[in-house]
Write a structure and sequence with these properties.
alpha+beta, seven-stranded mixed β-sheet, five-stranded antiparallel β-sheet, 15 helices, 18 strands, 37% helix, 18% strand, globular
Length: 463
């Protein structure tokens, strides 16, 4: 067994780096380096510090030359590209292109261009793969890269951009831009580097979006054939010009309901907003997971009350809108496109082993909010109350608040066809008392507060 993995407080992180291994400790990230690369890694760290690469967006890093863990990094929330809003993926692509351009002035570059090398702090991208840093002159020593070089590619950095940035960043972005989000997320989930499945450009050239996709692909091909500095600028312009999902059925949800209240005017709020604020004020969670956040009114409320927030939803336009708001306002909110059923799902590789760990293992927070969602999960998807509560309990370290929406709620009673599993339920098995009973099996204390309209209540739970 690796001596490092034998330490009880360290977890080895999945990766395919041929130069070292990364380990997560409770409050830090440690990186070991293979002996044959150690001297070169220390020399690169000197350049890292001298040129202030941290200021360019590299993860804050400390070198420990006398320790078995050569580098120590600041830890960030672990999210994966298939969970990001498409605007976040675009920002990560532009950030990666900018790094290639900025590093060139120091004779340095990156030996790969992968979304998985980027994490986000608030809405700021951070490059986390320190051992991807390399002298540009040393790129030919990367045998796998030389094997992929095309005859017309005089610069191996062009090979990196063609083989990685195009496949793992631009192709999913093209799918988003041509209104094929399912295709985009399949690419991001299943064609990550070394995972075993590769999408082809022809995958985009189908259906009514084929003409738009062909236009994007033509622009990419014209860009990648340019000399490297021009190619980087052209690729950046291409990424910036893509029209990503901005509006959808739920992206104006709060405005349509007249519930886009001023966060600073609680006297205008309804019972729902007051009850959620009371829950947050009582428990003062430092971290909050807002499941089914839509465009994030309650996420913004929690953040305003001092919490670091993770907001999940399935609507592409809504998570994009929340991400753009958070980026512009500097909010401590991380929006992610995750369905409730995906919270407990890991993504396997081609061998069936875990490649992306499940959100339930990464996104635990002090408090969990799940508002206006239980009826979709039970009446729409046929989930039991107990199974829903079991997932929420795994994510909530201290407390949770679930809004119960009754069968007599106007949005349910007036749209029964919208809920495919509604026939499985009746007032006898779908009511507040049943939800409270389920909650008591997973939490120590349960209480009920008003919501709005009066066909809804807020069920709060505490560990």
């Amino acid at each position: 067994m690796d001596a490092l993995t034998s330490k009880p407080d360290l977890t080895a992180l999945r990766g395919n780096d041929n130069r070292g291994r990364v380990y997560r400790a409770p409050d830090t990230v440690l990186r070991s380096v293979h002996p044959e690369y150690r001297e070169q890694a220390i020399e690169l760290f000197d350049l890292f510090a001298r040129h202030d690469l941290e200021g360019m967006g590299f993860v804050p890093t400390t070198c420990r030359p006398d320790d078995e863990y050569l580098f120590e990094h600041t830890p960030y929330l672990t999210t994966f590209p298939h969970e990001w809003p498409s605007e976040m993926l675009r920002d990560a692509a532009i950030f990666t292109l900018d790094l290639f351009e900025k590093l060139d002035r120091f004779g340095l570059t990156l030996k790969d261009a992968l979304p998985s090398n980027v994490l986000f702090e608030r809405s700021e991208p951070r490059f986390i793969d320190f051992l991807s840093l390399i002298h540009t002159a040393d790129l030919p020593s990367e045998a796998w890269l030389a094997e992929k070089q095309k005859p017309w590619e005089r610069d191996l950095r062009t090979t990196i951009l063609r083989d990685m940035l195009f496949r793992f960043f631009l192709m999913p972005l093209f799918a988003f831009a041509t209104r094929r989000p399912v295709c985009a997320r399949q690419m991001l989930r299943h064609q990550s580097c070394n995972q075993g499945w590769d999408a082809k450009p022809s995958d985009l050239l189908r259906g009514r979006a084929a003409l738009s996709a062909a236009y994007h692909l033509t622009r990419y091909q014209a860009a990648i054939l340019r000399p490297l500095p021009d190619a980087i600028r052209a690729l950046r312009n291409l990424a910036q010009s893509l029209r990503l999902p901005a509006t959808g059925a739920y992206s104006t949800y709060y405005e349509a309901k007249g519930e886009d209240f001023d966060l600073d005017a609680p006297d205008t709020w309804q019972a729902k907003q007051r009850s959620v604020a009371a829950f947050l004020n009582l428990h003062r969670p430092q971290t909050v997971l807002d499941i089914g956040a839509n465009t994030g009114w309650f996420s913004r409320l929690a953040e305003k009350m001092g919490a670091k927030v993770i907001a999940t939803d399935i609507d592409e336009a809504s998570v994009n809108r929340l991400y753009l708001h958070s980026r512009e306002a500097g909010c401590n909110i991380t929006p992610l496109r995750i369905a409730f059923g995906e919270l407990t799902e890991a993504v396997p590789d081609k061998h069936g082993e875990t490649f992306f760990t499940a959100p339930v293992d990464r996104l635990q927070c002090d408090g969990v909010l799940m508002l206006g969602l239980i009826h979709h999960l039970c009446l729409g998807e046929g989930r039991s109350m107990d199974s829903v509560l079991a997932t929420v309990a795994k994510l909530a370290n201290k407390a949770a608040a679930i809004e119960f929406v009754g069968l007599d709620d106007p949005l349910v009673a007036g749209n029964p066809g919208y809920f495919p599993k509604i026939a499985q339920w009746s007032p006898e098995n779908y009511n507040v008392s049943r939800l409270v009973e389920a909650a008591k099996r997973h939490f120590q204390e349960v209480a009920v507060s008003p919501s709005h309209p009066d066909t809804r209540v807020l069920v709060t739970m505490t560990n």
